[in-house]
Amino acid sequence: MKGLYDDLSTLFRRTKLVRIAVLFLFVVLLFFLWKMQIIDHRKYWARSESNRIRQIIIPAPRGLIKDRNGEILAKNITSFRVSLIRENIKDPKDSLKRISDLLKIDPSVLEERIEKFRSLPLFRPIVIKDNLTQEDVARIEVRKLEYPELLLQTEPKRFYPHGTLAAHVLGYMQEVSLADLQSGSFPGSRGGNLLGKSGIERTYESKLVGTEGLSLDIVDNVGRVYGVLDHRAPIPGTDVLLTLDARLQRKAEEALVGREGAIVILNPQNGEILAMASSPSYDPNRFINRFSQEEWQQIAGDPATPLQNRAIQGLYSPGSIFKLTMAAAGLELGLINTGTTVFCSGETVIYNNPFRCWHEYGHGSMNLLGAIQNSCNIYFYQLGRRMGIDNIADFARRLGFGSQTNVDIPGEKAGLVPDPEWSKETRNAPWYPGETISVSIGQGPLNVTALQVAYHTSIFANKGKRFVPHFLRSPEKKELESVSISQDTFEKVILGMRQSSSVGTSRAAGVPGFEVCGKTGSTQVVSRETAERLSKQARVTKTHSWFTGFASMSNPQVVITVIVEFGGMGGAEAAPLAGQLFRAFKEYYD
């Protein structure tokens, strides 16, 4: 028993010693914690303040945008920007004043920038000025130790080397708004980022934008970097190759100088858009430099509407180019054949109302091909009366009107093919028979876009085959179901188009050796009676001027559509411009 007692005593002594040792260590630990928190608080606080981890987002270069031949239409250049890190601000009022003086920024503009992104985390830098000059950069560098709240960075800045060239196709970039961030329209975006807001820049944003890099820097309390915890390089965006031909695009834009209107050039065999011009235009480089709400309103509110892409957003009555639809419908329905004649005396009475031809003295006896060649209104008035609005609307929709073409840039309008149902729903009124007569020559409530007209023309060129108009270069053809109209019908209408471009109203678009097939149109903007009351010099008394056509007849390679607002007669204004472009195409591609 004694041995057992001795062993237990020894165990208890040892346990006691362990307890005392643990208690001693605990007391020592408490002492040091107390010393750090109470006695040395200021020293350790100052040390922690002088060692921070700063998270820096490194912008990714956007992908290039190139034309079909590799010419660069949008690229990146190196620029400087300065951002504000709000968590480093000790005295907001004093800091904002000093920064305003340093960067020569109006204090109210600086406050507006901060307020715009106030909901973002304090450590997240807010871009307060970009596109810095060399003087700006030098000023910041020399005094950077005085401004730990400022972060100077290089960034890849978007640049459009040809200025206004293809502006409506390429689109423009703007700073992402809080509404954009909250809506989720631009996943992965941050406040201050510039993102595509229209055109190709918007449609292919996810391809072009790339992936931002990240650097976790160890910095002192004045922002000096003396270590890097982690660094991930940015990944550039993907280049986008377009169907555009910059040479044809230049020619199209040159043709519209001093005019308001649009031009579309496309390949009917696959839907590739070779050129799309809209005038007046704008320089997308302006949007790269962040501007105020007032400056934006000035641009957006310009009465000439330079931001509007007239090729897909301008809505116009098609005028006499709609006679191609009427001719195809009449043939397909068996109402006429190429030998069917109508006598044109310059005016006819239908439903007790006079309807005039554009040719004051009339064309005399006209068959279908002659009516297309000479754009005889009387022929198509009579055809429309027999056909009725429902048949007209049906064939108009089959041939590409009344719905979007689904081109791959945003903002396209669908146009309007009116019918009795539309009249009842929209106007709460019946459809009047006289309206059918107006629609028969492309007037009345019927309206279309220039791209729809080009697409419509490509269907004739292909004798029913349809391809989605598009800008992204791809080996895959976006072919749609063919139009349910006979080959024979298309061939007969094409003969009329060929005659129009040889000896008819479209002859100014003709090019020797290229077999152009086309149709002109002149669209009334105001009624004839109103025009007669106004001065003949008044702009609104002039008609909008149309031409659409393709070449060549035996091997359709190109469709060209021209609309000139208030341009006058299609044969005198739009057709000659189209002729210039057919010649340019033949020169480049022959």
The computed structural class is alpha+beta
Considering DSSP H and I runs of 4 or more, what fraction of the residues is helical? 25-40%
Strand content: 15-25%
Instruction: Give the N-to-C terminal Cα separation.
Output: 119 Å
CATH topology of the largest domain: Beta-lactamase
Q: What is the overall silhouette?
A: elongated
Provide a descriptive summary of the structure in words.
- The chain has 23 helices and 21 strands.
- It has two domains: 53-241, Penicillin-binding protein 2a (Domain 2); 246-281 and 309-589, DD-peptidase/beta-lactamase superfamily (Beta-lactamase, 3-Layer(aba) Sandwich).
- Strand 2 (65-66) and strand 3 form a beta hairpin.
- The protein is 38% helix and 19% strand.
- By secondary structure, the chain is an alpha+beta fold.
- The strands form seven sheets. Strands 2, 3, 4, 5 and 10 form a five-stranded mixed β-sheet that branches. It has a five-stranded antiparallel β-sheet with strand order 12-11-21-20-19, with helices on both faces.
